Amino acid sequence: MRARAESDPSTVGRRRVRPHRPPNAAAAATGRRARSGAWLDEVEAVARIGSYSTDFTTGNWVSSKGLDAIFGIDAAFERSVQGWASLIHPADRDAMVMYLNEEVLGRARPFEKDYRIVRADTGEARWVHGRGELELDGSGRPVRMIGTIADVTDRHRAESRARRLAAAVEQSAEGIVIADPDLRIVYANAAYAASVGRFASELVGLSARDVAAIGLDAATITDLARAVRAGQRWVAEVDHRIPDGTVRRFEAIIAPTHDADGDLSSWVGVTRDVTERRAAETALKTSEQRLRTALDTMLEGVAVM
Question: How much is the CA Rg of the chain, to the nearest whole Å?
Answer without folding.
Answer: 38
